[in-house]
């Protein structure tokens, strides 16, 4: 199965407008790690997670299938970026103390990825997989945004999107001491910032490609009268599963 790349075409937007992850998520992940020598951030995108892990590990290996995404990544001396599939990597056996994948597992051949995880992880290493669901703004705005998500761009989502909507509950996680946690990422965004975040969605990019029209523009016209402050609170529900190898 060929890897799916839905983000190279707008890597600059992705780097600017995708969210990072809250400190309490990293607290949980790091508390399950027994050694902090080498971590692997798989499907690193623009290196958000790799950059966070670099403060705690001697070395971070960060991979992605998109050269354009990696070109946008934050650079630190102890992060090494390279192009690689999730399911087949250049790493040696029993290399990593921690393996992470954020908002990308649904694009993988999950059993093949987990087989690779078992190969490259040290005995007792931790694996953490997480993602985030539908953004929430307010009681007035949320139904309009949900209508956009389901009905305007709904037909343009890849089938894998259902795994995100289900918080990965139907994807296998065959690891010991499995735990599930939930977090909320809270941000204060202008309407323009919010709309540009929506433009990073793969379904929006596919709609734009097929129709030669940006669907977010019309949504912005609907939201503008209801966006009552210069910066509005937005929330992202985050789901995490973590286990031991």
TrEMBL record:
Keywords: Methyltransferase, Transferase. GO terms for biological process: methylation. It comes from the Bacteria. Transmembrane segments: none annotated. GO terms for molecular function: S-adenosylmethionine-dependent methyltransferase activity. Coiled coil: none annotated. Residues 41-127 form the Methyltransferase type domain. Belongs to the methyltransferase superfamily. This is Methyltransferase type 11. The lineage of its organism: Bacteria, Pseudomonadati, Bacteroidota, Cytophagia, Cytophagales.
């Amino acid at each position: 199965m060929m890897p799916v790349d839905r983000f190279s075409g707008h890597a600059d937007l992705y780097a600017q407008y995708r969210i990072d992850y809250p400190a309490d998520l990293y607290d949980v992940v790091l508390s399950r790690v027994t050694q902090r020598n080498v971590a692997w951030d798989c499907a690193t995108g623009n290196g958000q997670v790799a950059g966070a892990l670099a403060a705690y590990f001697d070395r971070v290996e960060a991979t992605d299938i998109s050269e354009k995404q990696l070109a946008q990544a934050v650079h630190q001396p102890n992060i090494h970026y390279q192009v690689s599939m999730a399911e087949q990597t250049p790493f040696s056996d029993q290399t990593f103390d921690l393996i992470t994948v954020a908002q990308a597992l649904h694009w993988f051949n999950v059993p093949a990825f987990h087989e690779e995880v078992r190969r490259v992880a040290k005995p007792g290493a931790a694996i953490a997989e997480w993602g985030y669901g539908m953004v929430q703004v307010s009681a007035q705005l949320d139904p309009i945004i949900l209508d956009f998500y389901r009905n305007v761009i709904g037909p343009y989502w890849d089938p894998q999107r259902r795994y995100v909507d289900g918080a990965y509950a139907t994807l296998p996680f065959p690891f010991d001491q499995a735990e599930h946690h939930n977090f909320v990422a809270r941000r204060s965004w202008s309407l323009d910032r919010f709309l540009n975040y929506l433009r990073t969605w793969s379904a929006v990019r596919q709609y734009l490609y097929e129709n030669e029209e940006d669907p977010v523009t019309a949504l912005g016209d609907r939201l503008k009268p209801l966006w009552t402050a210069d910066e509005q609170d937005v929330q992202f529900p985050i789901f995490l599963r973590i286990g031991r190898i």
